[in-house]
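Standup notes
- HV: blocked on the assembly model, inputs below
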Amino acid sequence: MTSANQIRMPAGGASASPAGPREAGRDSARRADNRRKWYEIIGLTTPAVVIYVMFVLVPMGFAVYYSLFRWRGVGPPTEFVGLRNYTLAFQDPIFLDALRNNAIIVFGSLLIQGPIALGVALLLNRRFRGRAVFRLLVFVPYVLAEVTVGIMWKLLLTGDGTVDALLRSLGMGGLVQAWLADLDVVIWTLLAVLTWKYVGFAIILLLAGLSNVPDELTEAAAIDGASWWQIQRHVTIPLLGPTIRIWMFLSMIGSLQIFDMIWVTSVPAVRSLGASATMATYMVDNGFFARLWGYGNAVAVILFVISFVAALLFQRFLLRRDIEGAITGRAK
Amino acid sequence: MTMAVNSVLPPSTGRRQVSWGTPLTYALALAIAAVSIAPVIYVVIGGFRTTPQIVADPAGLPDPFVWDNYARVLTQSNFWQQAFNSAVIALGTTLAVVVLGMAAAFVLARYSFRGREGLYTFFTLGLLFPAGAAILPLYLMLRDLNLVNSYYAVILPQVAFSLPLTIVILRPFLSAIPRELEDAASIDGASRLGFLWRIAMPLSRPALVTVGVLAFVASWNSFLLPLLVLSDVNLHTLPLGVQNFSSQYTTDTAGVLAFTSLAMLPALLFFTLAEKQIVGGLQGAVKG
């Protein structure tokens, strides 16, 4: 069995066997090992593959199938309507509002969180006593469940709540408004709360990226007389490129499927008027609660296609270099 | 504006503490920390007040301190039941993600075979789209499988959603284990599986903890999937509990604050303990 163990998987297809008198014996040992190798490969990967296929890919396929029917979810779908569910969705002003809101959240998150996170990460990357505590505090909102945070902000923001009282006591009473009920304001309120919640995630990623920037580089620049800002601008930030792009990618995908926060903070009436709806809340409202299963699944497919196309474009033009291994399958 | 202020600061020189930059640095750091946690602290303290107190003066301090809200949540609501459900689901998810993810990542990292990169791409595709989009057919499928209103209805899909990221984080870790170690192990009589169990697992502990923590937190916080598949109140998890409680007792602001604080607590404690590990584990992933 030693020989079996010694014959590893051919690295890079070097399978040419050295000619020799005992070649036949080795061959059968090799074949036995090869068989064992395949048993191991199949045994170790099958559970993951099965669960992944069954609970991610198969439902996706069913979504496409169901979306072609008008179906209330009872019995098998029979009333085939083709692409009608899709055209209906794009004719519904509430769905178009949901699309707009998703766009606001995607671009708003990127444009607001990015600069803030970069500033804070550079600050917290400086060496000072107690830095670890500050880092921990900044991540707190990110760790909490979106639902908890949503309820919390709802309490702080509704009906002349704490935020309004605070504004008044600061002499800014003019700013007070129906944060979560005013149809024109609610999406911006939610964007602010989402920023508060998720900027910590951007910071945590950027700090991880910053810790990979070698000290020698910044020290060398400092010795050459570069100012702190020049070092950040010309040495540190360029090296953060990959981290920033990965964060943008994750933020974008997350923003497209945002659900929990919107669901718990906004009154159903406000949501159903489109003021705060997103594609995901629209999908659940219509598909699950109104039991329009065919229609809901069409929305699911639209959400999926938009995310997938956005992800592919992003990956094609920006991300390629960074997660070469992850997406194109060339592990390095 | 943070950056504009930073640009005024004199150069920091390497490792040493920069005393003249410090007061400004501290001021900024304090301001940022305050924005992050002030609302959370407000909620926790608010739980110690009475609703009339809060209505009269939303920004005040407890006067007198009232323990009643917390006591009420812990004794009269389903808090403990929901915390238990959350724990079972989160632990089940984490265990399965770590075991299945490790097994698959090990094969993808240490075996060479035809179709390996195809299989890897197949998993990483899961990163490209939101699994949440498949939630409606997923519900229908779980309903047909008679799994709705069981822990499995939450655990199995969550494991599936978490596998792509888990494999992407674990694979480079496992690939980085030097070939020599594997050779040495095989000379000592270890099989490939023995190598996985006795060498690869212990060596990749940091990455395993990272993926475990990420899976646990994601599961502990998840809302949409439990909302759809757990209609049985006895199976509700904490996020569902928070939502129910707040819509059921809309006038009991203090009670909702107390419930919300208690629901936050486990995640906060857990994260505080694991924070170093998460940042450490992400470093490898970010580097790619």
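- HV (later): unblocked. Residues 1-17, 324-332 of chain A have pLDDT under 50 and may be disordered. Chain A touches chain B through 129 residues (CB under 8 Å).
- Next: hand off to the docking folks.
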